Amino acid sequence: MHLELDHIALTLGGKRILDDVSFEVHDREFVSVLGESGAGKSTTLKVVAGLVFQDEGQVRFDGTCVDDLPTHKRGCAIVFQDIRLFPNMNARDNVAFPLKMQHVRKAERHREADELLAAVQLEGMGGRRVGELSGGQQQRVALARALAGKPRAMLLDEPFSGLDEQLRDDMRTLVLDLHRRFGMTTLMVTHDPDEALVMSDRIVYLGEGRMLQEGAPADLLLNPQHEAVSACFGDTSAIRGTVAGGEFSAGKLRVPAPNRADGDAVLVRVKDGGVFVHSLSA
Question: What global pTM score does this model have?
Fold first, then answer.
């Protein structure tokens, strides 16, 4: 699915939440919407999903305006930060719920739910209640439930923010694997610059409801066009990756690394905006 936001504007309670926001997400592309709290990131996602209606502009899927379509007819699945599983159901029934709403027979929807639980590395755990699952396991169930509706686009609203760092890394890897395996267009909201850098084909940076810059991860990292973008990527941080043939890579991030030995490396960002690649190979 090719998503387009065309001059989206929205005012709530007298405050301009989104102001002339335009960008595209190409078919099967993974795009992150990055920015500080209050930038309008989650609102943008809700506009795409049809949970909030804009005052101006259009949302188009594959070139067709969907502004008059309700959420359940847009072909999108959304995974929220607070997960929103049904506490009275076990994992299998949570995942199978969208199929139940489509009147799929019980045996078939349970079979599909078990297959999806296996896809998110929860094989054999369908009978467990939500309260018996860890935070990371609940997030995997939420992903499986979203996939059960066979969406053409996946919308992720800061899905890893409640997890510890190791679980975050595991979930990032899993989400990218599911994105590729199911061939979906994916739009993710995050406030974590490292997360956006390593997961995204492109990044859209929002500030105070306006799009300040969009492009490949390396474009925003190395050539910020706004002081807010520069500040976001200027905080001291290190990303582990590898160097091969003069290029540093970590996930989808690619940065030139001339005169660096092939092998394990770390990309270091410093507060003045500098980016350095250090080889870890002996």
Answer: 0.91
